[in-house]
């Protein structure tokens, strides 16, 4: 499956962050609008208390990486159980989807309306065309039949999305969808998959998970 031009998209992403910050500073938006964009949705640290077990690891996923981000915590759980003869209750896994991996945490309607796949250069293997749905949520590599929702519902892993990436990427896709950046952000937030936690930023979430006892693993 084709991958985005990481260098180009990274520059575009960082440029969008800088542009957004600059707009706020020079008053392009009113204070009320700025407060609305920055305060909605409320983000929190409630997910940190859900990290359980003696053996804890956080997976830092900033790219699509063929959808492997969701497979890594399952690999960690299975191999730790096999090697140490422990149970699920002894293991805690957190997967942070930040930067251009963040869109993996939203539903099919967002992918369709905002043409997420075109921005990220993701092709649907069934059609060889740009995906019009989130093709990763029910196609976890190495784990046939697994879905993101099943993984989160079973509490085998905590999935965290980056609010900074959500804000920037939704804004980047708003114009083509014919909506304002504010409306796009609201719809992207409402479109998060059930069970996904939203952190202030992905790098913040990685830090907080490590502070809660997780070792670090780069998820690509």
Protein model, in words:
The chain is α/β, with parallel strands linked by helices and 220 residues long. The protein has one domain: Hypothetical Protein Ychn, Chain: A (3-Layer(aba) Sandwich), CATH 3.40.1260.10. It contains nine helices and seven strands, in the order H-H-E-H-E-H-H-E-E-H-E-H-H-E-H-E. Strands 6-5-2-1-7 form a five-stranded parallel β-sheet, sandwiched between helices. Strands 3-4 form a two-stranded antiparallel sheet. Strand 3 (123-124) and strand 4 (129-130) form a beta hairpin. Helix 1 crosses helix 7 and helix 7 packs across helix 8 (181-190). The longest helix is centred in the first third of the chain and has 21 residues, at 6-26. It is globular and about 55 Å long. The two termini are 15 Å apart. The relative contact order is 0.20. The model is unreliable at 16-41 (pLDDT under 50).
Short description:
The protein has 220 residues and is an alpha/beta fold. The protein has helices spanning 6-26, 31-39, 71-84, 108-113, 116-120, 148-153, 163-177, 181-190, 202-211; strands at residues 55-61, 91-97, 123-124, 129-130, 158-162, 197-199, 215-218.
């Amino acid at each position: 499956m084709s991958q985005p031009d990481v260098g180009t998209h990274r520059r575009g992403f960082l440029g969008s962050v800088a542009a957004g910050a600059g707009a706020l500073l020079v008053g392009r938006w009113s204070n009320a609008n700025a407060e609305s964009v920055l305060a909605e949705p409320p983000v929190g640290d409630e997910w940190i208390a859900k990290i359980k077990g003696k053996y804890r690891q956080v997976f830092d996923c900033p790219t699509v990486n063929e959808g492997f981000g969701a497979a890594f915590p399952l690999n960690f759980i299975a191999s730790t159980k096999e090697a140490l003869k422990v149970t699920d209750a002894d293991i805690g896994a957190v997967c942070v989807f930040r930067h251009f991996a963040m869109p993996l945490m939203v539903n099919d309607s967002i992918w369709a309306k905002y043409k997420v796949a075109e921005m990220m250069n993701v092709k649907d293997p069934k059609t060889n065309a740009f995906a019009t749905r989130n093709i990763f949520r029910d196609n976890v590599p190495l784990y046939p039949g697994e879905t993101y929702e099943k993984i989160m519902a079973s509490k085998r892993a905590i999935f965290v999305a980056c609010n900074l990436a959500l804000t920037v990427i939704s804004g980047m896709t708003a114009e083509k969808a014919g909506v304002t950046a504010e409306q796009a952000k609201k719809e992207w937030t409402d479109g998060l998959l059930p069970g996904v936690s939203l952190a202030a930023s992905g790098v913040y979430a990685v830090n907080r998970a490590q502070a809660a006892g997780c070792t670090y693993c780069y998820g690509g």
